[in-house]
From TrEMBL:
Domain of life: Eukaryota
Name of the protein described by the UniProt record: 3-beta hydroxysteroid dehydrogenase/isomerase domain-containing protein
Gene Ontology molecular functions: oxidoreductase activity, acting on the CH-OH group of donors, NAD or NADP as acceptor
Keyword annotations of the record: Oxidoreductase
Domain named 3-beta hydroxysteroid dehydrogenase/isomerase: residues: 49-170
Length: 353
């Protein structure tokens, strides 16, 4: 059984020439057009998730499918299609509208990928397999250029010009060697400080989000950004190693300053969707997204051990807390804006029921 590859502009839109059985050797399972649902038309809007094979992207896809949306995924390379078989169950694969191979650096292919979509969830420009050493100043530049292309493609091609943009808590916390006052959505990381300290992921996320905000105004794209902390599996301290390595550059200082926060990847995915669904009720701007702030040395060591990165946070000695004293470090972070949105959304849902 062969696949049809419909090349539209620069994007390869992969569609089956006949229904495929999940997991057939040598074939890319992409979409089953016999998908049926009793859900309302509003709930069945076509939405696009960039890098749907990434850690966060795949969880957003799962949550969208569970809510009845028709989901289009973009991946950067043909080989990434194989990842989908391992990430999604058969019934989830059946719910996909299509999978599009679209490079983040190719504006035309992104336009084709986004055409007809009611919203684009931009989750990741690329996946960095080498962690701290692999994410360089060059990658920060690529991250920013990709953000420009995504917003411009939304403005040119999306059916409804809306984008939920995944930034990072790192784009808010690195203001200087000290934290003065509460860190919330009004705070931005200092780009020069990030450069001087080679905090490349923080720099990339900061510059990418800023360019997204600037260009969204020019392109009249309704933009909301979600800024998650260190992504974790559903239970602490099981962090996602690949995404943890670049995030924790400067982790010891984060711990000292009370700004090292973690977020359950499933709840981060849910937050993206809640923010999107609340846009008609006024959701806008930035939302810091985290659940837990690491405030004790024993928690930091527990996280280090899970990641097999011994001493990265604690430096192998009790510098943060006095010996034998496990007092909590004062947290400087606030996620009250997202908490209010979630609470209001829950109230609206209960009123409808």
């Amino acid at each position: 059984m062969k696949m049809k590859s419909c090349r539209e502009g620069g994007a390869a839109v992969l569609k089956p020439s006949a229904p495929l059985a999940f997991g057939e050797k040598g074939e890319h399972y992409v979409v089953n057009y016999s998908f049926t649902s009793s859900l309302s038309a509003r709930e069945r809007k076509v939405v696009c998730v960039t890098s749907g094979n990434s850690y966060l992207g795949s969880h957003i896809v799962k949550e969208l499918l569970a809510r009845g949306y028709l989901v289009r995924i973009t991946v950067q390379n043909q080989v990434d299609l194989e990842d989908l078989k391992a990430l999604f169950k058969e019934e989830e694969m059946n719910g996909l509208e299509s999978v599009v191979v679209a490079k983040m650096g190719d504006l035309d292919s992104l336009c084709n990928a986004f055409r007809g979509c009611h919203v684009v969830f931009h989750t990741s420009s690329f996946i960095d397999p080498r962690g701290v050493s692999g994410y360089s100043d060059k990658m920060a530049f690529i991250e920013t250029e990709a953000a420009k292309n995504v917003i411009e493609a939304c403005g040119r091609a999306a059916y409804v010009k809306r984008c939920i943009f995944t930034s990072s808590l790192l784009a808010s916390i690195w203001q200087s060697d000290a934290v003065n006052g509460v860190v919330d959505e009004s705070c931005w990381s200092n780009e020069e400080f990030c450069r001087e300290n080679k905090l490349w992921l923080a720099l990339g996320k900061t510059t990418a989000e800023k360019i997204a905000w600037r260009l969204s105004k020019e392109m009249k794209v309704k933009l909301v950004t979600v800024c998650p902390g260190l992504l974790m599996a559903p239970s602490f301290p099981y962090a996602h190693t690949e995404s943890s390595l670049p995030y924790l550059k400067g982790g010891h200082q984060m711990l000292q300053l009370g700004i090292l926060a973690t977020a359950d990847v499933i709840k981060v995915a849910e937050a993206h969707i809640r923010v999107y669904e609340a846009m008609d009720n006024g959701a806008c701007g930035r939302y810091l997204c985290f659940e837990r702030v690491i405030r004790r040395l024993d928690e930091a060591i527990e996280l280090e051990n899970e990641l097999k990165m011994h001493g990265l946070l604690s430096r192998g000695r009790n510098e943060v807390l006095q010996e034998g004293n496990n007092e909590e470090i004062q947290s400087k972070l606030s996620n009250s804006r997202l908490a209010r949105l979630v609470s209001q959304a829950s109230q609206r849902l209960s009123c409808k029921q």
